[in-house]
């Protein structure tokens, strides 16, 4: 995989893309704004305008309800068995159930949960720290409800979730002895960026204003409440404003005094996630796009939907230099494959996705530290690459054992109705390559290698059609030949090991 892939050469503007979207562009949109889409879903929307399609994706995302509250959503330790082993078994089951529900949301809900997952790596908490199923549900609920809403509201709400209060020590922030952890990350990681528009004194003063949320109850996992006696009620100067500030004031002052800094920082994060990991190209093209997004963000009072709408409708987003330049995360690897094949997204396969992603460094609800997963190149090293190949092979082999014929069906769908019984293997291979690799294979030799994998020895060369081989007998036919499922299976095993498959 050449490093040239990861140099941002995109000079296209933020102006709207007005031509009808082709299949390649739509697959690109669904890989970035969700976790891929089936042939049928792609076919349904091919030819739509970006304006039309993006509006429908955003409307769907905004109207989706969050995961319903489970019966244990408000449980504390007293609701569990007294015996620790028994309690731990119940806790694990609850977390596993919620994790499976959430992965199902990732798999089915495109933009809403692509975003909720993105925000889980921005407003980071680690389940290992707070360890409460109820607090985890509250946190996930907050991510889902605010994923495409108002960012200022989001910042306000996330800081008062119990997961965050325990993770960054807000629950121990007594005004008489302030804890600076949350105040620091609020500025550094969540809203402004490191060293951007705030001072060390701002951190100290903000920690005093955020104090008081220390009433933790006698029973473990009791929700944190505000204790006025633990609040620093003295005057504080934050970002140049002096007063007896509390939690709400901090959020108001931050967005009043540093709107441009907040907007630019968040829009850069969104750009690097959805468009290209390199936002510092020497020509400054990416920064120009980010500036335009930031202006939209501020003018819309920090509503996220207008910013993402502008981005996903832009010439910049659909430029060829934006396609296939982001390395798939582990969750991308498996969920994209499941969605793009249309194969069964069973509980077993989704659980496999979770466990395999964990092995590859992306543990659900447990990013590596407060800065989150660094994505892109961090997903690729020798061990992880082998792990990506082997786990993908296990997934594909499982599907083949379950039902080989679904591989034939996939190929027929991919080539389209007109070619559903073609006798030309190149037609099939090219269509499958174009479906699963964002820009196809880089060289003709790589394509010939793929052809060689597909054309197994069990099928004599002259069995293919005359449009492929001189004198071809057309005895091999996609819709009926018994060898087809195995051929498609072997081709997919080959493609998942290609560098191009690792990109989206």
Provide a descriptive summary of the structure in words.
By secondary structure, this protein is mainly α. Among the domains are: 14-63 and 259-322, no CATH class; 330-402, no CATH class; 405-502, no CATH class. Helices cover 53% and strands 1% of the residues. It is built from 23 helices and two strands. It has helices at 23-33, 39-45, 50-63, 84-108, 110-120, 127-130, 133-146, 151-158, 162-167, 181-191, 200-209, 247-257, 259-274, 285-299, 304-312, 315-318, 330-341, 347-359, 382-402, 405-415, 425-436, 444-454, 484-495; strands at residues 236-238, 241-243. It has a two-stranded antiparallel ribbon with strand order 1-2. A hairpin with a 2-residue loop joins strand 1 (236-238) and strand 2 (241-243). The two termini are 13 Å apart.
Give the tags.
504 residues, mainly alpha, 2 strands
Summarize this structure briefly.
The chain has helices spanning 23-33, 39-45, 50-63, 84-108, 110-120, 127-130, 133-146, 151-158, 162-167, 181-191, 200-209, 247-257, 259-274, 285-299, 304-312, 315-318, 330-341, 347-359, 382-402, 405-415, 425-436, 444-454, 484-495; strands at residues 236-238, 241-243. It is mostly helical.
